Automatic annotation (TrEMBL):
It comes from Kitasatospora atroaurantiaca. This is Peptidyl-prolyl cis-trans isomerase. Residues 1-28 have a biased composition (Basic and acidic residues). The keyword Isomerase applies. It comes from the Bacteria. One of its GO terms (molecular function) is peptidyl-prolyl cis-trans isomerase activity.
Length: 267
């Protein structure tokens, strides 16, 4: 039984890694297809985060605004009968886009706490600015811009890998803030229950998507861990218990969970 279970988990991990590679390759092809329109209007696709998924955020290269809402927001997830979940707060993702990683403003020696007020309950996270300063800085910046507000968590995995993935305002797994930043804190990285880590489409492609680990998960050390859940792990486990839409172990959660608001504060 043990050998069969280990093999099943190994196959599940290999499947997700293949998905990541395919979607990263699709992203590269999409960038190559972009053309200059009318000799003056260029459409640029920048990679953003997406665990096991490529990501893109298109904007007009001649648009001088650094926070114009160019990402196409998706409607809030439908209410489902998962116990403990309710209708999300009214509103839509703002889909803002930026051309570069935000300037560093976090204090790597300080402690920061993020609170995710979801339609299924609150989750609190102790952020690790010492080991992942750029990641925490980006997360704090985006939450301050209300970028995560009204964004649904678009992916739940319940076989082999146990995570809830959030942070894409388009709800497709291919959206991001328009900028990328480098990986951090990968040496010896593990992903036990309670870990919060960045999703990506390959090395150095972090953006806005992140995942919350609700059960011990084995992954290669390729995803920047930047926080630990200090409250609300039961909320995530309840969402996972509601299953995936259409059955199976990978897809949109039946809970239709939405980030009503996300706030980051210096402790």
């Amino acid at each position: 039984m043990g050998t069969t279970e280990q093999r099943r988990r190994q196959l599940a991990r290999e499947k997700y890694e293949r998905q990541m590679q395919r979607r990263a390759e699709a992203q590269k092809k999409a960038r190559r297809r972009n053309v200059i329109i009318g000799g003056s209007l260029a459409v640029v696709v920048l990679a953003a985060g997406g665990a096991w998924a490529g990501a893109g955020g298109a904007f007009d290269s001649e648009d001088k605004s650094k926070n114009s809402p160019q990402a196409a927001p998706t409607p809030s997830a439908a209410v489902t009968p998962v116990k403990g979940c309710s209708a999300p707060a009214a509103g839509q993702p703002n889909g803002k886009q930026w051309k570069a990683e935000p300037a560093m403003t976090v204090d790597a020696k300080a402690q920061y706490t993020a609170t995710l007020d979801t339609s299924c309950g609150k989750v609190t996270i102790e952020l690790d600015a010492a080991k992942a300063p750029h990641t925490v800085n980006s997360f704090a910046f985006l939450s301050g811009e209300k970028y995560f507000d009204h964004v649904k968590c678009h992916r739940l995995t319940t076989e082999g890998i146990y995570v809830l993935q959030c942070g894409d305002p388009t709800g497709t797994g291919s959206g991001g803030p328009g900028y990328q930043f480098a990986d951090e804190n990968l040496t010896g990285a593990t992903y036990p229950a309670g870990t919060v880590a960045m999703a990506n489409a390959g090395a150095g492609t972090n953006g806005s998507q992140f995942f919350l680990v609700y059960k011990d998960t084995q992954l290669p050390p390729n995803y920047t861990p930047f926080g630990k859940i200090t409250g609300g792990l039961d909320v995530l486990q309840n969402i996972a218990g509601g299953g995936v839409q259409g059955g199976g172990g990978d897809g949109a959660p039946n809970a239709g969970v939405v980030l009503n608001s996300v706030a980051t504060v210096k402790s």
